[in-house]
Each structure stands twice: as C-alpha cells, then as structure tokens.
Amino acid sequence: MTAARRVILVASLVATTGLTLVLGVTDTFPPASYPTRFFVWNLALAWIPVLFAAAFGVVRRRIWLVPVGLLWLAFLPNAPYLMTDLVHLRRDVEMWRHVMQYGVAAWTGVILGVVSVHLVCRRIERDFGVLTGWIAVVVSIGLCAVGVVIGRFQRWNSWDLVTQPGAVAATTLDWVRSPLTYVQPTGLALAVGALFGLAYLTLWSLWPPRAAVPADESAPDAIGPDLL
C-alpha cells in the first residue's frame, strides 16, 4: 500500500471515530451522556490493538514479537466488541441519530480490527511464511470472538487477563465445555467470528500484494512501514 493510501486509511478511521463522538455530543441528551461516555472509552480501547499491531510490524528483534503479540491479542476483541454495543439502542425520537452513531462505531471497530490483524499477518507471513500467517489470522479471529463473549456476557476486561487470570479462565472454560448450554454466548461468538472473518477476507481481497522484502532481518529495509 502506498503512503498516500495509508494516510487516507488512517484519516478515514479517525474521521469515523470523530463522527461517532460528534453524533453523541450533539444529541438532545446532555453532552457526555451515557452512550457518548462509553463510546469514548470503547473507541479508545478499539484503537489500542492497532497500535500494538503497528509495533509488532516494525519491531526488529524477534524476541519482542511474543510479548507484543500477546498484548495485541489481549486487546484485539475490543475492536469488534463495538458491534455488540448495538444492544444499547433506545427507541425514541432520536432513533435515527442513535442508529447512525452505533452503526458508525461498529463499522469503525470492525475496520480497526481488520487492519490490526492484517498488520500482524503481514509480519508473520514475511518472517515465517504465508501458511503460518493465515493460521495466525484464523486463530486470532477465533480467539477474538471468544474475547467478545467474555466482555459482553462475562463482563471481563482485557486487563483482567493479568489481574484475575484464574477467574477469567474458569468462567470461560465453563462456557467452552458446555457451549449448547449457553446459547446466546455461543451464537454471538459464531456471529462475530463469521462477520469479522468475512470482513477480513473482503478487505484482504482489495489490498494489493505487498512487494517482496529482504528476508535478512539485518537488512536495512527488511522492516519498515510497508506492511499494509
């Protein structure tokens, strides 16, 4: 992807983020009302995996790929999680505004997630091969769908993986062992995984192939911004 296209991509995502907030602060409800407050927080969290993915793409020492990759994976569900905020839609005279606000937020979250997965995939493809890169895509999207369920139904946050890992693992394993007992979480996981995966494939098909880069990690151009 050319530098101009990268600028347009980032600018578009910043614009949709801003549009979500503008629709909130110009609402008939007081500015910074409940929907706008949680959108500020959730949108900020949705940008974090993109930042970690960018770091993953440019880090020179492979030893740093694991910790940066784990941080990216821990925050990745925050991006598609914005789709589930549609549950807060209210029926009132400003319904059109709320549909637009929630819809733009969901769109922004999905695209942020796709971009971050693509950045990580490109780096893995370059270092470990195309097959490994696609395996990483499938695994990360699957774990992301599980993460959305953990956040929406079990109400855990990304940092709870560090502060309360045992409790997060226990509640998640309880669901994973009996998925048919928890119909709504299982249905949400399948829906998020399918939608996120299809969104990734759609945008992946539009991205031009990346030019070959030197395989030697010590080469000056081996690691650079051209991972999109």
TrEMBL record:
<feature type="transmembrane region" description="Helical">
    <location>
        <begin position="128"/>
        <end position="150"/>
    </location>
</feature>
<protein>
    <recommendedName>
        <fullName>DUF1361 domain-containing protein</fullName>
    </recommendedName>
</protein>
<feature type="transmembrane region" description="Helical">
    <location>
        <begin position="182"/>
        <end position="203"/>
    </location>
</feature>
<feature type="transmembrane region" description="Helical">
    <location>
        <begin position="40"/>
        <end position="59"/>
    </location>
</feature>
<dbReference type="InterPro" id="IPR009793">
    <property type="entry name" value="DUF1361"/>
</dbReference>
<keyword id="KW-1133">Transmembrane helix</keyword>
<feature type="transmembrane region" description="Helical">
    <location>
        <begin position="102"/>
        <end position="121"/>
    </location>
</feature>
<dbReference type="Pfam" id="PF07099">
    <property type="entry name" value="DUF1361"/>
</dbReference>
<keyword id="KW-0472">Membrane</keyword>
<keyword id="KW-0812">Transmembrane</keyword>
<feature type="transmembrane region" description="Helical">
    <location>
        <begin position="64"/>
        <end position="82"/>
    </location>
</feature>
